[in-house]
Amino acid sequence: MSKKENFLKGFFKENPIFVFLLGMCPALAVTAVFETALGMGLLVIFVLTMSNIVVSMLRNVIPNDVRTPAYIVIIATFVTIVGMVSKAFTYDLYLALGVFIPLIVVNCLILGRAESFASKNKVLDSAIDGFGMGLGFTFALVVIGVFREFLSTGGIIWGEFLPFFVDQPVTLFSLDMIINLFNSDFVIADYALNMFSLAPGAFIALGIILALIQGKSARRIKKEIEIQKQRIVELKKVALAKKAAAAKLVKEAA
Amino acid sequence: MTWTVFAVAIFNAMLINNVILKQFLGICPFLGVSKKSSSAVGMGAAVTFVMVIASFVTYAIYSYVLVPYGIEYISTIAFILVIASLVQLVEMILKKFSKPLYKSLGIYLPLITTNCAILGVAEGNISNIYTNYGSSGMWLAVFTALGTALGFTLIIFAFSSVREKLESSNVPDAWKGVPISLVVAGIMSIAFLGLQGIL
Question: Less crowded by CB within 10 Å, the N or C end of chain B?
Fold first, then answer.
């Protein structure tokens, strides 16, 4: 596997959330708004990359019998670091994520990558794998977060939890902007589906997204099966034609 | 603390702030081990067993070791180590003293170390109960853990029963498997939303 493939596999082919269903707890819990989802993703990218590097460095030192506790301690160290850093620099994000920052320790994705990739591969490859997988995880979280925030408020806001680039929260996009061109009395927030910011909306939104992905792959598989069937029919036709020709030759000879 | 406090804590943790449907902890076993109701019950029993012991031990360690020495910041590392070794210990004790119990719970115990509900409840006890009651809130923490675990068992059992029915029903290709299960969980979550505001 080339380095580029190794980096890109986390996005679509081996996406941790959409394909492998790993790390579902944060995918449901912190995606009510797009910003907390992005913040969670950034923390996971750091922890996953660093733990993959350290596990890969120590892969010949750690005895096989105690490898899981050793990996957990390595991961927990980096989780404590990101907890402290987020408390110091992005306090709103720290409060919004709450218990889910220490819970990065038991995120199956991180332990799974340490176990299945970093413990068998070289340091650079493991770092690329961790970074790519982390980006894929972040991508999935952001997709769910945008979906839910857009349905529950009718717009996307930046700057509430991640105070980068702006001092005040800014509306990046809102349906009000389009509606105001025609009719200014209508406010989209009155008609938004508030359920998607609550607990049931998390399950249903993720269900809808997974169904979209599954439907697409099911259609592709169906198409492939149909193409194969057609090929088999054609092959059969060719074989029958050959047989008929051979039979004819035999008849003529007789 | 009176018994009403404990009863309210159990009711609150079990139904109102349900661990799966409200707090989103323990989703991996919720989706992974809920295909058959017998395995769902086994998982629920194992989680109950470990969660009660783990929250007792972590609370004691936090209030009698970490706080006196001023090293609360390593609580995550300490808790996950305690839980991992506790699971090993429980497995060994069960193997030695209770063969039938080990046979029914044994395969679920290794999965519990990475069950975020256990660590989540331990951390939640510290941030919700320790800050209000100090080291005297130990029993409240244990009863909260018991309620949480009972809520987990209840939901995973109900969900697995629904899922057994779903297996034999005619679902569109796109929704087969996990997507329809997530929507079912969402509908259950709507039902539990109705309990909010009782207390």
Answer: C
Domain boundaries, chain A: 3-158, 198-253
User: Confidence band (pLDDT; 50, 70, 90) for B189?
Assistant: very high
Structure tokens at B100: 């039938």
**ipTM at complex level:** 0.89
* pLDDT band with cut points at 50, 70 and 90 for residue A180: confident
CA A162 to chain centre: 21
Determine contact: A105 vs chain B, CB below 8 A: yes
Name residue A67's amino acid: R
Mind listing the pLDDT tens digit for each residue in A34-46?
A: 999 999 999 999 9
**What is the residue type of A89?**
F
Question: In terms of Cα–Cα distance, which of B33, B27, B38, B23 is closest to B147?
Answer: B23
Cβ atoms < 10 Å from Cβ of B24: 27
Does the pTM surpass 0.90? The reply is: no
- Tokens 């690329």, residue? A128
pLDDT digits (tens, 9 = 90+) for A27-73: 899 999 999 999 999 999 999 999 999 999 999 999 988 888 889 89
Q: Distance, in angstroms, between A175 CA and closest chain B CA?
A: 26
Is the pLDDT at B92 greater than 90? The verdict is: no
| Interatomic CA distance for residues A235 and A231, integer angstroms | 6
Q: Please answer whether residues A92 and A69 qualify as being in contact, where contact means their C-beta atoms are separated by less than 8 angstroms.
A: no
Which of these ranges, A89-103, A162-176, A239-253, B53-67, has the smallest mean pLDDT?
Answer: A162-176
**Who contacts A222 (Cβ-Cβ below 8 Å, separation ≥6)?**
B173
Closest-CA residue of B relative to A214 is B174
Shortest alpha-carbon distance between residue A191 and chain B (Å): 19
- With a CB cutoff of 8 Å and minimum separation 6, the contacts of B29 are B43, B47, B111, B115, B156
Candidate from A25, A202, A215 with C-beta closest to B25: A25
**Token representation of residue B1:** 């603390």
